[in-house]
Write the structure tokens for this entry.
Amino acid sequence: MSDPNANRGLAGIVAAESALSFIDGAEGRLSYRGYDIHALARHAGYLEAVYLLWYDALPSAMELAVFEGTLAGQRELPAAVLEVLGRLPDASTPMAALRTAVSVLGQVDPEAEDISHEADLRKAGRLVAQLPTVIASFDRIRRGLEPVAPDPELGHAANFLFMRTGQAPGPTAARALDTSLLLYLEHGLNASTFTARVVASTLADIHSAVTAAVSALKGPLHGGANEKAMEMLLDIGSTEAAASYVDKALAEKRKIMGFGHRVYRTEDPRATHLRRLAEELSVESADTRWFELSRAVERLMLERKGLHCNVDFYCATVYHALDLPVDLFTPLFAMGRTAGWAAHVMEQHMHNRLIRPRAEYTGELDRPWVPIDRR
Ligand SMILES: CC(C)(COP(=O)(O)OP(=O)(O)OC[C@H]1O[C@@H](n2cnc3c(N)ncnc32)[C@H](O)[C@@H]1OP(=O)(O)O)[C@@H](O)C(=O)NCCC(=O)NCCS
């Protein structure tokens, strides 16, 4: 029998070919379609990066305007989806609501069962356009408020913030959210993307794959980490309390959320930009408390465990500065990543082979059958 610990969690296993993103965990490098994440985070908008991922080319100004305009015109939700959101139990979490809503969007999509590349592209566009409306509408409905209709004049991120509060955000806030979505867009075969590809490899449709991917993202070891990171920062409360909190957690062998990574052994290049955005937002609001606390925790983790923060840590600080409720942090990760999942579904559909690994059997063999009256 082979070593049962070999490849636990499929670490290091190559399970698919992809031309979407390149990650070098040792060097802390990430690129989308060959373009370095640092250039994209500084110069590109979220939908520009989505276009790059789906069409394998940077859009011209005209192509980007058409792409953004098409998606802006598709933000409204079908009545069936709004109705379902209104009927969810009070205890529904935003991630559970999102999972249900994506599934219902698939039920009512006019091309639900068409998995041709052209239909996949159109459905992916609708999903990316509709997800912000799902999240903002659910958040308003649960607060007893009417959903706010999308404003096609606002950009993708600004419109989300507008739909949640009814107020158009300032440019720094809109830009910070937009860049966070770009940083969440794509990251190789992480758990949710792998899930999406497994579903797509059965030749199931894109909404099925994204519903499953949302489910995989929900857990605290994946997308849920940005919420857990914020809960921890709120729990610590002040920079002075950081050292005793971290030391106690480490002594009790508890994980500090937002640190460590399966692939990166150095700084996660996405964290670099989220740290910058968190600082910008804190300076603009003249409330640097949470940024300073985040810096303190980051320094402690590096000192005590040699662990760097990952994408989720400063994302939590950014979303908190944007005044977003903690339980919307993971849905926002999903909002950014949906276009990445869609890109993988399209790659899978275009070069499909059923993904079907095997398990190392560790049970018994040749057990004698015992009739039910003799057990
Ligand atoms: C992301 C994560 C699941 C990667 O897991 P992994 O590749 O299996 O790494 P391991 O769990 O093997 O970590 C190696 C060591 O570092 C420790 N470690 C890893 N992340 C840690 C963290 N966030 N806090 C404290 N210790 C941590 C592990 O306990 C382990 O220590 P040990 O060798 O003494 O047992 C893990 O780092 C984690 O749980 N992080 C917190 C959740 C998170 O932020 N997830 C978002 C990822 S983008």
In short: The pocket of coenzyme A is lined by residues 221, 225, 255-262, 305, 307, 310-312 (CB under 6 Å). Residues 149 and 163 are 7 Å apart (CA to CA). The radius of gyration is 22 Å.
